Amino acid sequence: MAVKKPSIHDIAKAAGVGVGTVSRVLNERPNVAEATRAKVESVMEQLGYRPTFAARHIRTGRSQLFGFLTDQVTTTPFAHDLIKGAQARARQADRMLMVIDADGDDRVREQAVANLIERGVEGIVYAAMFHHEVHVPKALHEVPTVLVDCFTPNRDFASVVPDEVRGGREATERLLEEGHRRIAMVTNDVLSTGYPAAVGRLEGYKEALAEAGVPFDEALVREGSGNADSGYRWAHDLLDADDPPTAYFFGTDRMAMGAYFAFTEVGLSVPGDVSVVGFDDQHYIADALRPALTTMALPHAAMGRWAIDHLLTAPWGEDRPPPQRRLPCPIVERGSVGRAPASDAGEES
């Protein structure tokens, strides 16, 4: 049988004060003597009193809730870090997340936004499965909203995304640091999609080569499809060249994994004969490969934290362009990058 929950009337009676005094303590109003406040709080603890969500919402005008609407994010390897980052920052501010996955369904997405607004959420984080342009429900304009790993065509919402160009540049620079000059790149998707990850990482690759004075060679670039089979096939294709690359930058860790199999089949060792850098930092792949894969980490936890922090601190309602934030993709050093052969580095034998 359920135990009857104590009410503020029970608290007032046990503490020997009026209901109004209990209400002021609950609302953290200043006009209560410290001794009285301490007594009321002690009684609430003794009786196990917890104000209901509805009562708190009515009293304070704040729900202490943020909506977290995902679009198939919960089915990706990155969901944990993204939600964990957002949840940790929300908890610091005494807020909770209501997580809903629309699973790519427009009707579910529209209904989810309506439901979140009806429940009085203080803001909504809209997170995409991967970095791309999105069209979001119009109702999001009714509540403070931050987009994660996506952006709208006219940039009318605050957004936070990975800095793909910088990530591509720093991955290539890591290989250049070891003396490699024939560096291949296999993009994570075909460039015609226009997806920022494919286009941006290639741009960063070109920037790094130019800065190092290494001519860009289109023959060293392949347009992949992100999976292991794509990495395997393109690695073999590049190895068949008259002057094959000594280093490889793959747009995903899955493609790097496929390339490892190709290198083994032709008797090449990593990093003794060829060096490899991946992208994404999918731990179950990068840590499991031998040698473990050096890769660029997508900043999912940091993006989740930034989104909640912006909801908490931004001056909403002001007539200013919403920020479009890019966060760096840090390199995770493992064991797949080594010195270039003397011939590729331009050294004398």
What is the structural class?
alpha/beta
Count of structural domains: 2
Query: Low-confidence stretches at least 5 residues in length (pLDDT < 50)?
Result: none
Helical segment tally?
A: 13
Strand content: 15-25%
Mean pLDDT: 90
Number of strands: 12
Task: Please identify which CATH superfamily of the largest domain we are dealing with.
Answer: Response regulator
Task: Please explain how this structure is put together.
The protein has 349 residues and is of the alpha/beta class. It folds into two domains: 65-163 and 299-327, 3-Layer(aba) Sandwich (Rossmann fold), CATH 3.40.50; 164-298 and 332-345, Rossmann fold (3-Layer(aba) Sandwich), CATH 3.40.50. The chain has helices spanning 8-15, 19-26, 34-47, 53-60, 79-92, 106-118, 164-177, 196-211, 228-239, 253-265, 283-286, 300-313, 342-345, and strands at residues 65-71, 96-101, 123-133, 145-151, 158-162, 183-187, 221-223, 247-250, 275-280, 294-297, 324-327, 331-332. The strands form two sheets. It has a six-stranded parallel β-sheet with strand order 2-1-3-4-5-11, with helices on both faces. Helix 10 links the parallel strand 8 (247-250) and strand 9 (275-280). The longest helix is centred in the middle third of the chain and has 16 residues, at 196-211. The termini are far apart.
